């Protein structure tokens, strides 16, 4: 192990601090629903590769005492965790992290997406443009109708996927965060992107970020019939709110 990585790991083992969190340029946020190895891998990738003035915030939505104990033992100046007991729906869990964030910008990651290089600085540069309200590497555009979305290289898109999405904390708070009715994660990122853009602003793809996607645990762990039912319910909810807003579709 090189000395830089070793020092970062030692920092992760520092005792918890009782001082209020230091203001940061960016909060790197993920929600953990279980699967401790994924959280460990994500955390190591963040402390190895992020170059900005950052903190990492992990929302523990697992209900697992072992994960809670592990996160408590890792607390440090630039790493904080929030335990939700009992666990909440996806959107409410994300909102807990947004509210706790000490960064002016929040970058939400799926815990199965790891940094392989400095993916943070380009996202901060994108949000330095006041016309951009949400940015990330994975963009979506509606296929003629908001009932169907497909991946798009952008640069301007209708929505940014929640695998990695960056936004200003103040903008998220003005919207009261993600819609808590989205208890399952699917479509929640699209709906949040639309609400950000409805206030004025663009969703921008930042291409070629050094990231690696691994298995999406919530998708794989949910019974296919159940995830289809939950996804359909979320799409109906999205269409109820935004189905009659073709002006928000990028052409």
Please state roughly what percent of the residues sit in beta strands, choosing from under 5%, 5-15%, 15-25%, 25-35%, 35-45% or over 45%: 15-25%
Note poorly predicted spans.
1-17
Structural class: alpha/beta
SSE topology string: HEHEHEHEEHEEEEEEHHEEHH
Rg: 18 Å
- Average residue pLDDT: 89
Q: Summarize the main sheet.
A: 5 strands, mixed
Q: How many distinct helices?
A: 9
Describe this structure as you would to a colleague.
The chain is globular. The protein is 37% helix and 24% strand. It is α/β, with parallel strands linked by helices. The chain has helices at residues 3-12, 36-49, 65-74, 90-100, 120-127, 169-174, 188-198, 217-221, 224-242; strands at 24-32, 54-60, 79-83, 103-109, 113-115, 132-136, 139-142, 149-152, 156-157, 159-160, 164-168, 202-205, 211-213. Strands 3-2-1-4-11 form a five-stranded mixed β-sheet, sandwiched between helices. Strands 6-12-9 form a three-stranded mixed β-sheet, sandwiched between helices. A three-stranded antiparallel β-sheet has the order 8-7-10.
């Amino acid at each position: 192990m090189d000395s830089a990585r070793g020092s970062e790991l030692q920092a992760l083992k520092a005792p918890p601090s009782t001082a209020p969190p230091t203001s940061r340029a960016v909060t790197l946020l993920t929600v953990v629903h279980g699967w401790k190895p994924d959280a460990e891998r994500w955390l190591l990738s963040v402390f190895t590769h992020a170059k900005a003035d950052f903190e990492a915030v992990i929302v523990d939505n697992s209900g697992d005492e072992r994960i809670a104990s592990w996160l408590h033992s890792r607390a440090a100046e630039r790493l904080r965790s929030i335990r939700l007991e009992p666990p909440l729906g996806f959107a409410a869990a994300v909102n807990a992290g947004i509210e706790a964030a000490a960064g002016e910008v929040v970058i939400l990651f799926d815990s199965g997406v790891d940094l392989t290089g400095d993916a943070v600085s380009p996202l901060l540069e994108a949000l330095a443009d006041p016309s951009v309200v949400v940015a990330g590497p994975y963009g979506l555009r509606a296929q003629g109708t908001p009932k169907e979305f497909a991946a798009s290289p952008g640069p301007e898109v209708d929505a940014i996927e929640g695998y990695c999405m960056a936004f200003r904390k103040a903008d998220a708070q003005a919207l009261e965060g993600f819609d808590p009715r989205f208890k399952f994660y699917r479509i929640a990122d699209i709906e949040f992107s639309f609400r950000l853009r409805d206030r004025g602003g663009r969703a921008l793809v930042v291409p070629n970020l050094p990231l690696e996607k691994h298995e999406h645990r919530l998708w794989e762990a949910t019974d296919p019939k159940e995830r289809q039912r939950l996804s359909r319910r979320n799409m109906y909810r999205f269409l109820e709110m935004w189905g009659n807003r073709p002006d928000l579709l990028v052409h």
